[in-house]
Amino acid sequence: MLISAFVLGLLGSFHCVGMCGPIAFMLPVDRTNSVKKITQITIYHIGRLISYGSIGLVFGLVGKSLYIFGFQQQLSIVIGVLMIIAVLIPHKTFSNYNFSKPVFKIISKLKSTLGKSLKKKTPDTFLTIGFLNGFLPCGLVYMALLAAIATGNTLQGSLYMLIFGLGTIPLMTTAIYFSSFLKGSVRQKIQKVIPVFVILIGLLFILRGLGLGIPYISPAPVFDVANSAMECATR
Q: Can you give the residue ranges of every domain in the chain?
């Protein structure tokens, strides 16, 4: 599952460039000093990873709470179904409902703070920009968060989001260096692959929740294994 986090981040970064690309293009990096420029970009990515890891920690805690109450398998199936539905339902349908309205003020403040930070060039500024960038609304991040919940573990949820963030780094870095490289048919083709991959991840979560006894893909529930061991011991 952790491999899927990296691939989702890598493929999803083509979508992320469209959403967060303008921020990456406007980063106040020192273009006259290569070492300084690399350092500033690295700090920016560290900020993004910290925000992704923090969000993953919170959502992993939610998954852990459901796991404690015995809803791990059902949760995995529900999240897999939600991921597939989110891909299959036309984008226009979601546009008819303003889901972000309750947090519109928070998002506005984030963008305002980002705008002010983009005018500075101190090391902490790049960390701040990256950190705030991670909290901006993004459909692919939502998909990754659903997967973080499904891990049913606080640390694994955080790790899932960290690896997702690592997957976005190559293309986001390319966006900062060569903005024209990301234009054209290649980007459009890869964006078409993203929904297919999200559906595959959704199917994997459904299979995992079914507990079919398939190693690594759909392992048998822990309580079933424990019960079988107890039955063997009593015979």
A: 2-234
